[in-house]
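Handout, section B. The chain below has 264 residues.
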Amino acid sequence: MNAVKDAQRIVVKVGTSSLTHSTGKVNIRMVARLSAVLSDLRNAGREVVLVSSGALSVGVGKLGLPARPRDTPARQAAAAVGQCELMFLYDKYFGECGNKVGQLLLTLDDFSHAQRRENLLNTFTQLLELGAVPVVNENDSVSTEEIEGLHLGDNDNLSAMVARLIGADALVFLTDTDGLYTANPAEDENAQLLAVVPRVTDEILALGGASGSNRGTGGMLTKLRAAKLATEAGIDVVILNGGAPENLYQLMDGRQIGTWFRAG
């Protein structure tokens, strides 16, 4: 994993299941650990962008709702509340480690419109030059694509688009599994972890299975599609277990961990 070890500009995407408890409430200890590790990478001279899911789930927990609302306006409202809570925590824990954060809430239009795309790139560039860590999420309060499941990419796809936009060297997915397996390890004891994937083929995509947990909208398939998008742009991609954010240290040390999708 020498290519990933040498990465200087890194996009890290963390999913809802890694940020919240099964109750739906935010996992404060995990947010603190993640913030500390990413701050350490930033202190070591690497440029870090965090794409963070979790706003809707955190908002549901913050509002004391028994479950995710079914109607879109209520989900948008919950996401707005949850986004405030997430950014408060990121600002607190990154700040305790001597780092600054900046929030970017994006929609697909920000990438498809030429002028907005250029403005977005300028903002990322300036934030990184100022030593801040951009924290990115889809703008669920005005964009309904992710909330309504109108596209499969959600924040996995968004992270790949951000990585391509800013010319990242690596994209890392922190999720609830150790990487990509030949089968579902919860159902097949013979399932084997794939250490390296040279290219995201149709056969690899077929290993993605269905969608993710009841707290998030993504899953392995969306990550594989995002990995295809990123690797085709020359960006190395790794899927790691987000239950231990410290796994990022092993990755940056060049050790074999998770599943590495080679830049193509």
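Note. The mean pLDDT is 90. Compare this with the example in section A.
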